[in-house]
Amino acid sequence: MDASSGDDAAVYALGDGRALVVTVDFFTPLVDDPYDFGRIAATNAFSDIYAMGAKPLFVLNLLSFPRALLGDGLVEEIIRGGSDVAREVGVPIMGGHSVDDPEPKYGMVAVGEVEVEDLVTVTSAEAGDLLVLTKAIGTGVVATAIKAEAASPTATTAAVTSMTTLNREAAAAMKSVGVRAATDVTGFGLLGHLSNLLLQSGVAAKIVAEDIPVLPEVSELIAAGHIPGGTRRNLKDLEDRVEFGDQDETTRLILADAQTSGGLLISVPEERAEELMALLETASPVAAIIGRVTDGAPGTIKVV
Which class in CATH covers the domain with range 3-118? Predict the structure, then answer.
């Protein structure tokens, strides 16, 4: 796989039509609960494997943590969270590495396997495809509010539930139906990841803002000033690629919000979209058709 393609993970051909899919991800705590932090980080690490249509094989832990706090039981809870997710996936944690660091960080190297003919990339979307998003967005805003102790229990629970929900079932649905392209929505936000998929495929898109699922209370939290720096950067970086309609600043920030452990963004032929959505009713109940791939300047998005 060409490293310039912008795909979610590295792909290494093994021969005989098989390939390894390998990815790494780690970050600082997004939530106060160390167990939930471990679960979120692990779920996020598996997401790239699922986005490319691969089956996870094993993971390695990556941990940075201040030595002075090792006796407080926090590390054990972080690792327990990651281990529970790996157990849910059904793969072993086969080691890892830790370093003394004043700022905690946790994540995983995830290794998967895929038949080359089943590989899902960001390079094959075609004009006329429908765009499907499998999770609500807004986790960046909620996580920022959590750090400021300003997120309500409702907003926090919804965000944590979303971030700890594996993309496994959604990926199985897209593989069953047969889709053209897919990616997962993480740090570059919905607009950033969509723009990359479109750019790599040589197409454009039109999306409908009101059809995009959003987590509870995100608009209110933005109004209160809980906006991640990464979200603002995303919006600025995309100003030459995105044509907005009459959407207000809050909506624009939501569409660019930097996500963690977000859903899959899928480009599916229109004739297969109904079958995909039927499968996603169980796999990902909030999944929605949010727009359509169009002809146009590669990587550009029109928001209506």
Answer: alpha beta
